[in-house]
Amino acid sequence: MHSINSISNNRIKEILKLHQKKYRDELGLFIVEGFKAVEELIENNIDIKEIYAIKAFDTEKYTVKIIDESIMKKISTTSSTCEILAVAKKKEYNINDFIKKNKLILLDSISDPGNLGTIIRSASAFGIDGIILYKDCVDMYSSKVIRSAAGNFFKIPIIIIKNTEEIKNNFKDFNKIATALYEKNTNSIEECKNIKKYIIMFGSEANGLSNELINIADKNIILKMNNNVESLNLSVSASIIMYELFT
Q: Among 75, 86, 82, 147, which Cα is nearest to 116's?
């Protein structure tokens, strides 16, 4: 094991840069914090570049660098100091990986990292094969997203698609299911249960599903609820719909 005891160490400075999306994108790296999350990295064969800890961590495959607790507190993204942190390489997927799958969800310009993390967790639980982030979504490699996914972040592939034409041209064999805000020209969830290949499209927290996606939808479903409730949290409604189609 190697020991680092200075915040001015060049590697520590590089880790601090990874708190920003700009550098995560530029370097193709991201931070993972906590024993459970680091173990998930190892179990899912994610390319780990470095592991830092404030005490010994048993792993035969990687050299663990021991750092002072004060340094860990500085490089950690959480309010409470974690005991272990890893720097890992982003895992890239492409559309060809996705067109072979059957059950996908699409998230349209969602901005809340907690919502994305929870949706990843539910997607893993309810048999979704992959997630499409459409247009300008929150960074999937945000530490808040990874923590909210609760160990499921590495179990489900995620890609970014920027325009509708890519959806139309590459997913012709998929039924595109819109999730509506208003009860008009809608289908029941029961009607969708026998569909073999689908993309369920969920809109952003603020604006719902964009018209360009509504216009390419084959079906349109809505969750029925009491009239005195205007709407549900995005991750809650997405989880319910995924569960209903799973059962």
A: 147
pLDDT tens digits along 34-50 = 888 888 888 888 999 99
Place of tokens 């094991």: 1
Structure tokens at 194: 């026998």
Q: What phi and psi values does residue 137 have, to the nearest 5 degrees?
A: -90, 165
Whether this prediction's pTM lies above 0.85 is answered by yes
- 177 vs 130: CA distance, rounded Å: 15
Helix-helix angle 113-125:234-246, to 10 degrees: 10
Q: What is the pLDDT of residues 115-156, one digit of tens each?
A: 999 999 999 999 999 999 999 999 999 999 999 998 899 999
Cα torsion for 40, 42, 46, 49, to the nearest 10°? 120
- DSSP tag of 195: -
Alpha carbon distances (Å) from 187 to 80, 123, 172, 193: 46, 22, 20, 11
Which residue type occupies 95? I
Q: How many Å apart are CA 15 and CA 76, to the nearest integer? A: 9
